[in-house]
Amino acid sequence: MTRPLLLTTGEPAGIGPELALMLAARGQLANTVAVGDPQMLRQRAALLGLAVEVVEAAPGGLDISSPGRLVVWPATLRAPATPGVLDPANARYVLETLQIAVDACQAGQAAAMVTAPLHKGVIIEGGFPHFTGHTEWLRDACGVDEVVMLLATDAALHAKNPLWQGSGDLRVALVTTHLPLRDVADAITFERVTQISRLLAADLRRQFGILNPRIAVCGLNPHAGEEGHLGREELDTIIPALDALRADGLDIQGPLPADTLFTPRHLAGVDAVLAMYHDQGLAVLKYAGFGQAANITLGLPLVRTSVDHGTALDLAGRGTADPNSLGVALSLAQRLAAQRASTLAAP
């Protein structure tokens, strides 16, 4: 039997558990096992009136979900979960679901992991003051030096948005992730730009099957610094880094003004955009395909995808949340895992 995808159900007070249940009810969890508290999932299914059988299975087992049936590798809540009401007591539970998924992927028991949204603030309040997000936690859990956050949409979705007609898949990676804006410039170093660019190029080859990826890089400052008149980060750091990468054979453009890079003409033939900071790149991507995109962590020894949204506490327990992004994340995880296996098996 094919190794399953593992879906961590995320913050129990948020929409993650019900998104998993909705997809199970629709028969859209093929080859998937959830990781979470089975009793909480049964209660949430009953609250929403979803006819889903929640089946607890032994971790490592190969039983998978099917229409109307959600197979769960169990983790135990520390406190009862009320939709929309955060409880720091459950912070450890959320991290435990992630650890189960990481361990299973590394042991070869799962093909990939897909994560529903968590809430950073409540995990910090729950006794983990240095927690900054899934991406950084996975980096440390897997023992790698650096990872890259990449969000991707599907070209088929752009037909719904006239601005993007004629453009292909939109993939946006980040040099810095969850940092206050005040700290971003100091975090953009020659070493970081070159390391993130190399990781991005390597996983575009390994996980997306793009043999010679073409990457376009945003400048940090307006107009990419206007030759030093609007900031020197481009001249002092970014341009030397990109020159070094080109000398190593990477097909990399920039730095380019971010306000014009994200247009179909400039994106033509580009496989990924590398933005300097979180909102510079992700605001545009989410405008192009919010709810229809997935978050991918590159640089890990495993495949991990996630949704492009948060816990939506205001929607939790109502049954009105949109599960499409989770569906995209699951589909993409399956495809990336197959591509990664094929690449690793190649002579």
Automatic annotation (TrEMBL):
Gene3D superfamilies: Isopropylmalate Dehydrogenase (3.40.718.10). Its cofactor is Zn(2+); Mg(2+); Co(2+). One of its GO terms (cellular component) is cytoplasm. A divalent metal cation binds at H178, H223, H278. Substrate binds at H134, T135, K286, N295, R304. Binds 1 divalent metal cation per subunit. Can use ions such as Zn(2+), Mg(2+) or Co(2+). It comes from the Bacteria. Pathway: Cofactor biosynthesis; pyridoxine 5'-phosphate biosynthesis; pyridoxine 5'-phosphate from D-erythrose 4-phosphate: step 4/5. GO terms for molecular function: 4-hydroxythreonine-4-phosphate dehydrogenase activity; cobalt ion binding; magnesium ion binding; NAD binding; zinc ion binding. Its main location: cytoplasm. It is found in: Cytoplasm. GO terms for biological process: pyridoxal phosphate biosynthetic process; pyridoxine biosynthetic process. It catalyses: 4-(phosphooxy)-L-threonine + NAD(+) = 3-amino-2-oxopropyl phosphate + CO2 + NADH. Its EC number is 1.1.1.262. It is an enzyme of class 1 (oxidoreductase). Pfam families: PdxA (PF04166). Keywords: Cobalt, Cytoplasm, Magnesium, Metal-binding, NAD, NADP, Oxidoreductase, Pyridoxine biosynthesis, Zinc. Homodimer. Catalyzes the NAD(P)-dependent oxidation of 4-(phosphooxy)-L-threonine (HTP) into 2-amino-3-oxo-4-(phosphooxy)butyric acid which spontaneously decarboxylates to form 3-amino-2-oxopropyl phosphate (AHAP). Belongs to the PdxA family. The active site is located at the dimer interface. This is 4-hydroxythreonine-4-phosphate dehydrogenase. It comes from Vreelandella aquamarina. The gene is pdxA1.
